[in-house]
Amino acid sequence: MKFNTQFITFTVILLSIQSFTLDAADLLLYENIQLKVANAEMVHQNQVSNIINLRDLLLKKATYSRDCNELLQRGFTDDGLYVIQPDPLKLTPPLVVNCNMSYDCSGGWTVLHRNTRQSEMTWNETWTAYKYGFGNIQGDHYIGNQYMYYITSQKWYKARVVIDEEKDGWTQQNYAEYDIFRLGNETTGYRLELGAYRGGAGDALAGYENMVDNLPFSSRDSDTDGDAANCASKYGGGWWFDTCSTRSPFAMLTQKEKIHWEPFCKNCRHAVLMVKPVNMYCRSEEMTRQIRY
Description:
By secondary structure, the protein is of the alpha+beta class. It has helices at residues 2-36, 54-58, 68-73, 127-132, 145-153, 231-235, and strands at residues 80-84, 95-100, 109-116, 134-135, 141-142, 157-167, 170-178, 181-183, 192-194, 197-199, 217-218, 239-240, 251-252, 260-261, 270-277.
């Protein structure tokens, strides 16, 4: 009986030491990426080891890819967290992003934003928060307008908004794609530039009912929309607004529990905004797979 008690005590101590060692290692890694990665605060301490190219991050002479598509070309095929560094390297810092390597026939999508209906985030943030990003890269988040500008300015990108909604008891997924997606710098108010639309979810950003192409970004403390009211304050989130005269926005992916993308849904379950270079095409639209959340 005494032997069993001693063995149990030793096992508890060993497990405690091992747990402490793992926690200490996570803390060291977390402190390390905070020194090297601009948006490191968007990765929780216990998620640092999930960064797939962590070895590149820890090497003093690491060579980063410019986006998720370049990572895919280098042989990284797993979905998840990666560190990238957009051009020009002397001006832009390394960033941690979520890469979707398995969606559609070619993969290589860099996720810029994700929201769910049950999101714990309020989204009613300031201009600075939307500039540098907030949230959890592995969950609901906004990568930040400054980093969107860095990524989308280095070459021509297309964007895809993938939306989930429940209809008639079934979960349906659809998308809206724009063959150009680019943000201007902060002096332009992070002006949004969109190309031609394709997809089945409806053109909610550059259609007749709602035209936000070439409009600046608005937040609750920086009202740059053309409406007399402050649309970001009214709807509780930063976005590109044409008008806020209606009860609900025609398209807005940064609201708490109210994700709009008409005509597909007025209260969508999930929404993901992601980009990849325009020269990466599928051979057939039928090859498009559903995104995994």
